[in-house]
Amino acid sequence: EPEVTQTPSHQVTQMGQEVILRCVPISNHLYFYWYRQILGQKVEFLVSFYNNEISEKSEIFDDQFSVERPDGSNFTLKIRSTKLEDSAMYFCASRADSRGDTQYFGPGTRLTVL
Amino acid sequence: SQKIEQNSEALNIQEGKTATLTCNYTNYSPAYLQWYRQDPGRGPVFLLLIRENEKEKRKERLKVTFDTTLKQSLFHITASQPADSATYLCALLISSGSARQLTFGSGTQLTVLP
Description:
The structure holds 2 protein chains of 2 kinds.
Chain A: E1 5-7, E2 10-13, E3 19-24, E4 31-37, E5 43-50, E6 53-57, E7 65-68, E8 75-79, E9 88-95, E10 104-105, E11 109-113
Chain B: E1 3-6, E2 10-14, E3 19-26, E4 32-38, E5 45-51, E6 56-59, E7 62-67, E8 72-77, E9 86-93, E10 102-104, E11 108-113
Parallel strand pairs in B: 2-11
Antiparallel strand pairs in B: 1-3, 3-8, 4-5, 4-9, 6-7, 7-8, 9-10, 9-11
């Protein structure tokens, strides 16, 4: 069964460094998402991406964040200058098309900012 | 203010019994509601989706109801097994746009005791 994959599974970085989290959505899906979950808290929406542009973003997704689909398979989340409070699990999700309602989540990347 | 509440942080039941989890929301008019399962350190796994014009959905041992008047969804696991132990998340689709980001509840941690 097709699934969303994410790399790395765990990323440790120093405060102020840039990180890039990678996702490979399910093939032929058209809508892509990033969510995050701080330890012990809710899963929170960050950004949605369709047709090579951001379609919606939350207030969490500030200028330090960016997303890109550099090729036909990868979908990346970049945090330009990490802060301690960026430590969280980051989940990528994809959805098939405008008729498909279900979002399928990847296993997540645990980001630890020291 | 808008809120999504899941009935309790933790629920313990005996194997073989029916587990019932509750999701209540205020000040939302969701187009649909989804239930996900999340195991520790893993991404949410889609279980069931129910739309605003549907009263009930079933999938194997799972049943979801949706009452838009009460603003409540109930999630039932019949003949529960220890392997059903996990955190269960409800998520609402709020946006009517094409992005369709999900807003999650904080989850209920279910433990099925052998």
